[in-house]
Fold Peptidase A1 domain-containing protein.
Amino acid sequence: MDNRRQQRLASIVKSLISCYSHDLTLELIPPHSRKSPLFIPNLTFEERMQMQVQQSQNRVQHLSHMISSTLHLNFPESSLLGNTISIPVIRRTPTSNMLVEVGIGTFSDGSYKSYLLVMDTGGKIIWTQCEGCRQKPSGHCYSQKEDYFSNSKSKSYIPFNPSSPYTEIYGDGSNSSGFYAKETFTFPSTHLSSPYSKFPNIVFGCGINNHFASENFERAGVFSMSMDNMSFISQIGTQSKGIFSYCFVRSDLQNPPPMYLRFGSNITSPQSSTTIKLLTSSTLYAVNMVDLGVNGEQLRIDKRLLYPDNITTKGLIVDSGSSISYLSKGAYDVVVRKLEQHFSKHKGEFIKLDVGDRLCYSRIKGIKEYDNIPSVTYYFEGGSKLDVIPEGTFIRVAKSGELETFCLMILPTTFKLNILGAFQQVNVKFIFNIKDKTLQFGQEDCAKNG
């Protein structure tokens, strides 16, 4: 789709959207929360982190599929104009950790139905499973916590005429297909004059034929927050000014406070922050990383190691769906060598472990916690940098017995992408501005000011 058609589509979508409140804050539900359908009781912290490592591997694969695919999402702009449309295809896997609760529809008593959707900063469209998945001969549903959306009973459901089909094909063979429609989305309001914020005419996919390779997917659909025209943040651009933020707390807290996805005027900036430009070569949130550092020392890594020929996207993708960070193999090796030099200075304290690709060290338990654990820095074009504290660089696993283990939360990528994962975003507030194409970030105590 050329730029003129994209701009035209964006203007059409914005003209459809009106809102009763300009303030919006949504709670982010992590997978280990009791509110999540993915919650497994009695999991240890170590078991939870192992699951997130596997999810991260799946996530990187899905982003790689999405970027490398030659098939682009083609929202049926022509259906709005009454012309023939093509069926869009995206190859990826929605493995984001965070969920949001979304109220969809307007029923006879004025109520709506609540659904838990994956908050996906890499997804292009919003979709959920609709009742047709079990009513139509060609329909198929996967298991989810809530009832499937009864679009035929919703007074605010508006299908496109003529109908506008969509198809999502994911990297692991999972898929969802159905029809685009408009619907009212409802969220809890932070505005004193109303308990709810209603967003009429949100364009979403009503899923009819849905298959997932993982039998325990259980989430009702996807809540896109990318820079694509059909994402939620793009559709409410007038009300949110195209701005949203999040601030992740440490995953090892015993009783973690809630985390929030904030929009527009509900966002406050950190006391000290940096603003950098987003790359515009894709709908993902990528920034121009130029170097890396360890313990504040810049490593002067050759650009050919940061971005070898097989790297698909020239930049660092800031992603909420991957727990672990990923670097090209050459850059990763330089960082690891510097980290090993650091630990070699503390030979009497640390013992290196043989755990394959992971860089891990053990030591005798004590009250030190993260003492003598190194930090990592990401350097960006223009001189800006992101300092990742030791708690975000290494995960601390306190095993039974006398030893505790620290493992680096960065892995070498085999999927041609550099990614800043959620673990390394801890205690940093990120503010995304899709209108100005900027990313603002600064250190923050997310447990208090998320």
Observations:
- The chain has two domains: 3-240, 269-449.
- The longest strand covers residues 196-211.
- The two ends are 37 Å apart (CA to CA).
- Residues 128 and 180 are 11 Å apart (CA to CA).
